[in-house]
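pinging the channel bc i need a second pair of eyes. not urgent but kinda urgent?? the chain im working w is below, pasted from the shared doc
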Amino acid sequence: MNAADPAAHTDRVIPSDAAPSSWVDSAPRGLEPFLRLSRFDRPIGFWLLAAPCWVGMVFARMEMGWPQGIIDIRHDAIYALLFGLGAVAMRGAGCTWNDILDRKIDAQVSRTAGRPLPAGRVTLKAALGWLMFQCLVGLLVLLTLPRFAQYVALAAIPMVALYPLMKRITWWPQVWLGLTFNWGVLVGFALLHGTLTLVDILLFGALALWTLGYDTIYALQDKEDDALVGVKSTARLFGDKAQAAVFIIYGLSILVLAVCTLMSHEPAGLLGVVLFGGHLALQATRTGPGIGDAALGIFKSNRDAVLILIGGWLFAAIWF
C-alpha cells in the first residue's frame, strides 16, 4: 500500500525519513503516529534543544568561579531534568506545528509523504489537539522557573511559531532555527543569575552559528527535494561551496565560544572549546556537495559535540 495514500491510515506506516528502527515502531497503534508527529523516532532533536539550556546553566556556574560556582547538585539536577522534559514537549510541539503547516508540501515529496498527516493516519483536528497537549506540558515546566527566566523563555514563542514559514521566504531559515533552538542558553543563564549580560548574548550567538552549520549539513540531503517544491535553505544557497561555508561558520562559532570562555575568567574552560572545535572541524572535513545520506550521521554527531563542550566547562567549574 502506498504510504501517501490516505487509506493507509489503518496500517502501521513507517515514513521513509524516519529512523531505521526505534521503540516507536512497537508503540501502541493509536499512539504511534502521534509519536512520529513529535519525532520520537528521531530523538537527536530533543538533545539539541535541551543541550543549550544546560550550556547556559554550566556557563553561569563556571562564570561564578570557585567557590561561589560550586554546583548545587540537587538544585541543578532538578532543573536540568525539567529543561529536558520541556525540550521533549516543545520540540514535539514544534515538529507537530511544522507538519500541520507543511502537510501539503510533505505530500509532494517522497521522503516525507509517509508522515502521519499527509499519509492520512492522523486528522488535522487530532494533530491540533496533540499540539495543545504538548504545549500544556511545556507550560507546566515554564511555571517551575523563576519569574525572570519565565519572561526570557516566553520571548521564544514567536520564533517557534514562525520558524516553519522561514523556508518559504528566506534562503536563511537555518539562521532562524539557530536563534530558536539555542534560546535555552539565555533561559539557563537567567535561571541561575537572574539577569542577562553581554557575554550571555555572545554565547547565544556562538551556539546559533553552530546550529547554522549543522543544519546546513542536514539540509544537504534534501537539496533536490527542496528545489522540487520551492523550499529554500542555506544548503541550496551555498551549493558547491557548502563545505567552505560550514568551515567558516563553525570557525566563527568556536572563536566566539573562546572569547566567551576567556570573559568568564575560567581559561581552563578552553579545554572544552578546543575539543568541541575539533569535533566540528572533523564534521566540516566530511562535508561536501555529494555527501547525500551521510549528512544525517554527521548531523546526529552534534549531540556528542555539545556534551563534550559541557563536560569541559564542568571540569573547569569544579576543579579550577
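so Residues 6-319 form a domain with the Tetracycline Repressor; domain 2 fold (CATH 1.10.357.140). and The radius of gyration is 20 Å. — does that match what u expected or am i reading it wrong
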